[in-house]
Description:
Belongs to the prokaryotic molybdopterin-containing oxidoreductase family. NasA/NapA/NarB subfamily. By secondary structure, the chain is α/β, with parallel strands linked by helices. 32% of the residues lie in helices and 16% in strands.
Amino acid sequence: EAASSPAEIRTTCPYCGVGCGVLARPDPQGGLRVRGDPDHPANRGRLCSKGSALGETLALEGRGLHPLIGGTRAGWDEATALIAEKFRDTIAEHGPDAVAFYVSGQLLTEDYYVANKLMKGFIGSGNIDTNSRLCMASSVAGHRRAFGTDTVPGQYEDLEEADLIVLTGSNLAWCHPVLYQRILAAKSARPELKIVNIDPRRTASSDMAELHLALEPGSDVALFNGLLARIARRGAADAAWLAAHVSGYEAALAAAGADDDAATGLSRDELDAFYDLWIGTEKVVTVYSQGVNQSSAGADKVNAILNCHLATGRIGRPGMGPFSVTGQPNAMGGREVGGLANMLACHLDLEDPAHRLAVRDFWDAPRMAEAPGLKAVDMFRAVGDGRIKAIWIMCTNPAVSMPEADAVAAAIAACPFVVVSDMYADTDTAKLADVFLPATGWGEKTGTVTNSERCISRQRATLPVPGEARHDWQALAGVAAAMGWGAEFDYASPAEIFREHAALSEVAGRLGRDFDISGLKDISDPGYDALAPQAWPVTAARQGGRFFGAGGFFTPDGRARMLPLSARAPARPVTASHPLRLNTGRVRDHWHTMTRSGLSPRLSQHIAEPFLEMHPRDAAARGLSAAELVRVTSPAGEALLRLVVTDRLRPGTVFAPMHWTGQAASAGRIDAVVAAETDPVSGQPESKATPVEVAAL
Ligand code: SF4
């Protein structure tokens, strides 16, 4: 179909990290017709079920239209002054680490940048973390350990150029459907393209795979260590590349050789088939997602994958490389602005004094954070035990979505001062707010997002702002001004914030960081309005492209690091009282806690209610029948779910979707059950291996 007519507005889907371009046309009834943008490099006109239903999710039902103080309507001036006063008083009495921001991969980059600047440069604490911690923090940690920066080496085109795609811990068919469609199209054009799917559970993504490896939960390091050892034995390591560009090969190999891939639970034939295919196919892309990241050994799993690509030099070249596919639309943008508690803006390092100084000078910041702040799970523990006394939660619903959600909800309820900014005033978290700020949402706000292949795209407003809602950057700048920093936060538009971020990236580029969009630092307002999707870096010399094909990593000596790794079982062993491992994940047609996707009856038709998948052997052992209601329990809490008996998963494991919030009793609220165990390196929770028991109601 031809490019957009004048009435169509180019924007970007707000759901997953594929970052599809959308053409949206408002209709006279206040609705929106959407179609895929044929000119967007991520999707080339495609949309999945969620993206194509965007027009059905715009109802004002549940929207917060006015600020509320203690549940009563208030004005913006009054609410802003109260937030500034409470934060100022808390900081004066208890220090800057007594306050925190908990933000979201749904924020636009410009909102994220302002939040990070206010907390890390002006309040002077590292206590800003994000729900992206639950999604891809292990990938960030793995990238930084191996490459020196959080760099995604490849591009989506590599999926089409590969001869082998390994999907590990990724149900791409449901969670990143347009990428899955691109792979299907490539496979249909070139049937010799092989797919391997590594997942304890047989999913929709397994259907197109030549080989499905239903490995023991958490045994990914053992598997990729086995691959590394086999690479060496077969003489498939690239000695010249290793000598020129990589450190740590011998130590990584020694550790891999000491590991036993029998821990995967896979047969020798299955392991040999995988190793032979991987080693024998030069153009291999290993795609990984939450099945790898959401683990108490998530960073090690990431590095085990990176080790294999580094050993063979299969990185940064067409059709080759590890590929982290992020969950949220702007998880990457959040990483770029330093939205994680242990990062600074533009991939600068909070723990590096030279980086801190550079950012302090650039911001003219009065009080730079000196140390990393609390990561999400620890942040809510600190809310619970009183160390954090004031928190501002933006655009996310931790009372439902954090592991051990009951304890998190109780901590928020007991916190002396809670601000929640959200589109919706009726979320479980918004109901706990002392001050609620109505925020604009997709279709109303304007700014940029970055997808999983580093492509920066514009979200553009297509609809009027309802009620008194404001953009998040406006709410933040208002509070910053009320706290005495009006000049430093006197932004007139997202374009102005974007220019500042781009100018800071020039500083980062000079300090040897990968994130450099200095080519956009002087972009005009019309230029920003018209900004076409483009992958970073964007400098005078370069735009987009792959990293690392010719070497040159972002470590002090320019060499990548292979790490010695040993497989570890999930943090909590199963026990006689909790003998099953709970895996959690998404369904095809819902998003997060369904605040938006739940508004579309069409999306709810695919799967109408929360469920628990269980192997027939385990169901029989408990006398449970398909379709009956069951109670899932862990030491943290319980959830009520409809039982699905299926051999899609391994005996001893169960699976539940993460979306349902259980407004009535504990129905479906699975994160109440998930244990808050985290990876010691990345801080990411282990959302896929909680020991549980299941019984009839
Ligand atoms: Fe939106 Fe992701 Fe679907 Fe694309 S694949 S339309 S970004 S949900």
